Amino acid sequence: MISKSYLRKVILQYRVLTDGLMYDQRNEQLCRAIFEFIESKNIKKLHTFLSIEKNKEPDISPLFKSFWKEGKQVIVSKTDFMFKQMRHYHLDEKTDLVVNKKGIPEPSDAEETSLEDLDIIFVPLLLSDRLGYRIGYGGGYYDRLLGETKALKVGLSLSPPVDRIIQTEKWDVPLDYLITPFKTYQYG
Predict the structure, then answer these.
(1) I want to staple 56 with a disulfide (CB 3.0 to 4.6 A). Which of 15, 33, 161, 164 is the partner?
(2) How many distinct structural domains can be found in the chain?
(3) Degrees (nearest 5) of the Cα angle 151, 53, 180?
(4) 90 and 101 in contact (C-beta within 8 Å)?
């Protein structure tokens, strides 16, 4: 059996070596699919991750201006590595972002908020499967966050899911949806 830590290394290396043009095309297709999904679900308050550029994560920041124009609230997190938790902040066009030690952009001057009335949470991942399970970076931050909310749990990936992640844990929270540039998958 291949371990999660090995899969993380392989997938991350594959991403980093991905051709820039292919990344840009897939990310643009993904953003279109996300926009359509949000419109179809009448989303008003969303939580998203901010892309780690060096890891070539999906980047939905091109959609932010449209979200704000339509009156949608965008929430992002700031990670407290010492206490292994995330705090949540409103993101708007005036928010200054600072890249933390892990390469994650975070708000430096935003208003803290709760996740009450959250409609959807976009989840970062390295790999996902056709059952809605995912492999993240291994810190458990999003599994804890997903366990605290009733919002739709939506993974974003530039690649289609694999058949099955064999090594799942009891604390793993499956996704409700996975949006890729090619197709949107619904679970459950």
Answers:
(1) 15
(2) 1
(3) 50
(4) no
* Domain membership of residue 97 as a residue range: 4-186
Q: What is the spatial distance between Cα 105 and Cα 20, in angstroms, rounded to a whole number? A: 20
What CATH number should be reported for the domain holding residue 141?
3.40.50.10420
Whether residue 1 has pLDDT greater than 60: no
Angle 135-66-49 from CA coordinates, rounded to 5° = 20
The DSSP 8-state label assigned to residue 47 in this structure reads E
Residues forming a β-bridge with 46: 74, 120
Whether the model clears a pTM of 0.85, i.e. scores above it, the answer is yes
CB atoms within 10 A of CB 156: 27
**What phi, psi does 186 have (nearest 5°)?**
-110, 135
pLDDT category at 6 given cuts 50, 70, 90 is confident
